[in-house]
Each structure stands twice: as structure tokens, then as C-alpha cells.
Specification:
By secondary structure, this protein is of the alpha+beta class. Among the domains are: 156 residues, no CATH class; 110 residues, 2-Layer Sandwich (Heat Shock Protein 90), CATH 3.30.565. It contains 11 helices and 7 strands. It has a 5-stranded mixed beta sheet. It is rod-shaped and about 130 Å long. It is an enzyme of class 2 (transferase).
Length: 416
């Protein structure tokens, strides 16, 4: 990447006009984020075009004045047009060359040169155009103090010409100067407000994109944790069973190995699905994950490891797919935790409805045990995030003989 590209991608000024924009984008986690930068593709061409036009008009006036004055008997007269042209072109060059480095001093210098040319009295006073352009650029670049001070000085000069000079032509020139500078101030203020508004819109857009990226990252982390934590826990338990029974009951060891193979294959398929969604592959599954109908096979798998699990599923009709996924993952994580921290405990699962909500309660019972409050970890954090993302809640309650996980997710009641 060229150095200018690298600097521009960080949102810095790269020798471009202040207050304008470029179409730089920042790639983030598979998405494109528009980043506000201080330059635009069309802005520089417009400003340079205006400066070239100003220089051409100034040169035209200068040549015309010189030609008209060459026949004059006053030998010093031709120098008026030459001085006008040099001062006016000088103002154009100042704006063209210095506008990026210091828009504030630029407007002051351009104003001084333009006013000096303006005093030479050629009509029309095109030498004021680079001054007006510098005023606009200074306002857009937040150099308003320089712009207003320079315009105030120019107004003072113009008003002096209007009220102290009796000639109507000079009075008209003075009023014309004030009008032109008022237009420049108005245009600069308008462009600055538009720049600020656009920058705020792009900042909000970038914030929304970053929030979406972070939410997607958390969702994928939850999915991977839930899939791998449960599957690896099941594999660990079954491997222990197989090793214990390998000598005395080889058929039970074979069954444990079959369970390990099934759990590994299912975990691999789910991980591939999550990674496919992450990569945006067309072949990735459109469904977000298992639904409540997959709870039966999950419970059977846990029972095969020797755990005592009961399932009371009263959720009819089924809620929306995202709610089903959340209930499934919370039950899955609760079973994994029960098997890990309370081996041998009986686990009761109750899925039910209440007015305006779906509930899922998983309670493990191990008489004689002294249950402790769970330590927050990735699993607990993931369960809470799932509940919160759906507007629900997750409560963990410690009882005398075990732990209870209670999920509540609000749902819209179907009209009768």
C-alpha cells in the first residue's frame, strides 16, 4: 500500500482541501465501514477550477486595462494594469499553494493582495474572487476568526470608499465588495455546517457498523462456546466411561466410542456451519442453529452418559426460531455445567409459557451436596447475553440441594 493510502486509511489529512471528503473505507470483520476523512474527490477540482477561472478573469482585465492605457499620454498609466494583474494572480497563487497548510493566514494574505489590486480601480474587480474563495475555505476549515477578521477589514475599506468618495462608481464598487464578501461568508458557513453534519452522519454510521461487528463477534463466540463446551464435555465423560469399562464390558466401551464419534461429528458440523456464516459462504446453513425439537436427542445423549435427566416440554405452539435457539443453548449449557460441577445429580428441565413470555427452568438436584453460587464464566456470560439480546432475563438460584437456571424471554401473544 502506498504511504499516502496508508495515512488516508487512518483518517488523516493527506495534502487535501480542508473540510472535504473522500471515499475511504475501512474493512472490519467482513464488513465495510465508511470513515470520515478530510478531503473529497470532487472538492479539489472545484476549488482549483474556481481559482483558474479567477486567474483567467484577472488576466483578461489586466490585459484590457494595459491595452486601453497604452495610448494614454500618462507614461505611468500602463503600470496600473500590470500591477493589478500581478497582485491578482499573486492572490490566486497564495490560495492555491497555501490553502492546505494554513487556511487562516492564507485568507489574510489573499485579502491583502486582493484589496491592493482593488484599489487600482479596474472594473470589474475580479481580483476579489481569490479573496472570496479563501474566505470560504477558511470557514470550512474552522478558521472562522481569520475569515471574519479579514472580511471586517475589507468592509472597513469598502465603507470608507463609499462614504468618503463622492463618485458614484467608487460607491458602487464599495457596495459590490461588501455584497461579494457577504456571499462568501454565507457560502462558507453553509459548507461548514454541511461538512459537520456529514461528518456526524458518517461517525454514527461507523458506530453502528462497529456495534454490528461486535454483536456478530459475540454471537459467533457464544455459538462456538456452546457447541464445543457441550460436545467436549460429552466426549470427556464418554471417554472416561469407555476406559473404565473397556476390560470388563467391551460392548459398553464400544457404545461409548460410538457416542464420542457421533458427538464429534455433530460438533464439527455445527462449527462448520458457524464458520460458514462468518465467511458469508452461500452454502452456509440459513437456519441459526438447533431448535426445540433437538432437545429430545440432546437429553438422550446426556442420559447415555449415565446422567438422570427429565424433560417436561409444554411449549406448544413453538415460539419464534431465535427464541427456540436461545432456549436450546441455555438448556445445553445448563446440562453441561451440571455434568461438570455436579456429576451424578438429577436434572429436571421444564419448558413452559406464561402470559407474554416463554420460560425454561433447569434444576439439578444432588441431595447432601453443598451447592455454591456459580462463578461467572464464558458459559454464564453467554447465557445472559442470549437472554438480554431477546429482551429477556436469566436468573441463577442456589437451593439447598442444587442449582436452578431460569430463563424468561418475552414473546408476542398470537391473536385469538
Amino acid at each position: 500500500m502506498p504511504p499516502s493510502e496508508a495515512v488516508a486509511s487512518r483518517g488523516e489529512h493527506v495534502g487535501l482541501l480542508p473540510g472535504e471528503y473522500t471515499g475511504r473505507h475501512a474493512a472490519g470483520y467482513g464488513r465495510t465501514v465508511t470513515r470520515p476523512v478530510a478531503a473529497g474527490a470532487r472538492g479539489p477540482h472545484r476549488v482549483l477550477g474556481s481559482l483558474v477561472l479567477s486567474a483567467a478573469l484577472i488576466a483578461l482585465v489586466a490585459v484590457t486595462v494595459v491595452r486601453n492605457d497604452l495610448g494614454s499620454s500618462d507614461a505611468a498609466t500602463p503600470w496600473r494594469g500590470i500591477a493589478y494583474g500581478l497582485l491578482g494572480i499573486g492572490a490566486v497563487l497564495v490560495v492555491a499553494l497555501l490553502r492546505r497548510r494554513g487556511p487562516g493566514p492564507t485568507v489574510a494574505i489573499a485579502g491583502a493582495l486582493s484589496l491592493a489590486a482593488w484599489f487600482l480601480n479596474p472594473l470589474p474587480p475580479f481580483a476579489l474572487l481569490p479573496f472570496a474563495i479563501a474566505v470560504v475555505l477558511a470557514l470550512v476549515a474552522d478558521a472562522a476568526v481569520w475569515a471574519v477578521a479579514s472580511v471586517a477589514l475589507a468592509w472597513t475599506v469598502a465603507l470608507t470608499v463609499v462614504f468618503l468618495n463622492a463618485e458614484s462608481v467608487d460607491a458602487a464598487r464599495g457596495f459590490g465588495t461588501m455584497f461579494l464578501l457577504v456571499l462568501a461568508l454565507g457560502a462558507g458557513g453553509f459548507l461548514r455546517s454541511r461538512r459537520v453534519r456529514r461528518a456526524e452522519e458518517e461517525r454514527q454510521q461507523a458506530e453502528r457498523a462497529r456495534a454490528a461487528i461486535e454483536e456478530e463477534r459475540l454471537r459467533i463466540a457464544r455459538e462456538l462456546h456452546d457447541v464445543l463446551a457441550h460436545s467436549l464435555s460429552s466426549i470427556t465423560v464418554q471417554a472416561g466411561v469407555g476406559l473404565h469399562l473397556a476390560a470388563d464390558r467391551p460392548e459398553a466401551a464400544t457404545e461409548a466410542l460410538e457416542t464420542i464419534r457421533t458427538a464429534s461429528r455433530e460438533a464439527l458440523d455445527e462449527v462448520r456451519g458457524v464458520l460458514g456464516v462468518l465467511r458469508g459462504e452461500d452454502a452456509a446453513p440459513l437456519a441459526p442453529g438447533p431448535d426445540l425439537d433437538a432437545l429430545g436427542p440432546l437429553v438422550e445423549e446426556v442420559r447415555r452418559s449415565g446422567a438422570r435427566v427429565s424433560l417436561d416440554d409444554r411449549l406448544r405452539p413453538r415460539p419464534a426460531v431465535p427464541v427456540q435457539l436461545a432456549v436450546y443453548r441455555v438448556v445445553q449449557e445448563a446440562l453441561t455445567n451440571a455434568r461438570r460441577h455436579a456429576p451424578g445429580a438429577a436434572v429436571d428441565i421444564v419448558l413452559d409459557r406464561e402470559p407474554g413470555a416463554v420460560t425454561a427452568v433447569v434444576r439439578d438436584r444432588l441431595p447432601g451436596a453443598a451447592p455454591e453460587a456459580p462463578v461467572p464464566g464464558n458459559g454464564l456470560t453467554g447465557m445472559r447475553e442470549r437472554a438480554t439480546s431477546l429482551g429477556g432475563s436469566l436468573d441463577l438460584r442456589v437451593h439447598d440441594d442444587g442449582l436452578e437456571v431460569a430463563l424468561r424471554v418475552p414473546v408476542r401473544e398470537d391473536p385469538a
